[in-house]
Amino acid sequence: MTPMATGPVIPDFGTVSPCVRDNGLFCADWFAANWSSVFWPALAQHVRLTVIAVGIGFALAFALALLAHFRRWLVRPLGGLASFLYTIPPLALFTLLVPVTGLSVLTAEIALVAYTLMVLFKSTLAGLAEVPEAVRRAGLGMGLTRREILVRIELPLALPAIVSGLRVATVTTISVVEIAAFIIDQGLGSPIIQGLQSPFNTQFIGAGLLAVALALAADGLIVLAGRLLTPWATMRRSA
Prior knowledge:
By secondary structure, this protein is mainly alpha-helical. It has 11 helices and no strands. It has a single domain, classed as MetI-like (MetI-like fold, Orthogonal Bundle).
């Protein structure tokens, strides 16, 4: 009969690299080994939360900006409301929403959409306001209706300002999604928080680098899309 072993049983975690063993600043081997289980799911969640928030926020802000463009008396109250929502600290807004909508994705998305409204509303409204009055009069002289002037003249000329606002709103949302990890276990904020609670550096540094890369990639894609949609603006800057 084999005698039973005494003392604590130490599990075998396998071999680790010197970087992991010594808790180096960033262990690329550990990052690669945990990409599919830790970092990729968090990155995909981060992208999804951002796209939903910016998409809904843009639709709301665009509609409100058009309404204020035609009803100028709405500019101040709508702009004031959007500015007020933007000034609330993210954690405070999450805390105010939790008793109503709980610790849920809905809570996170409501707050994220609120933070996009001011930038998108003001950039769209500013772009429409910057269209020269002479251009509008020319459209009227050509027999265009007010709606046709909006679609064929004002919106194309306002597009660079709208794209600029979309860039700011997207990058801001990517950063706020990290804070949303305090109420939902999703996005790159989740491995960042978990990493900060442990002495291991690579987890939160890797997630932080991915958030930075995501913001840069999103900004670059929006800039590229803006240039493709407004080739005349690029030609005017290079002239």
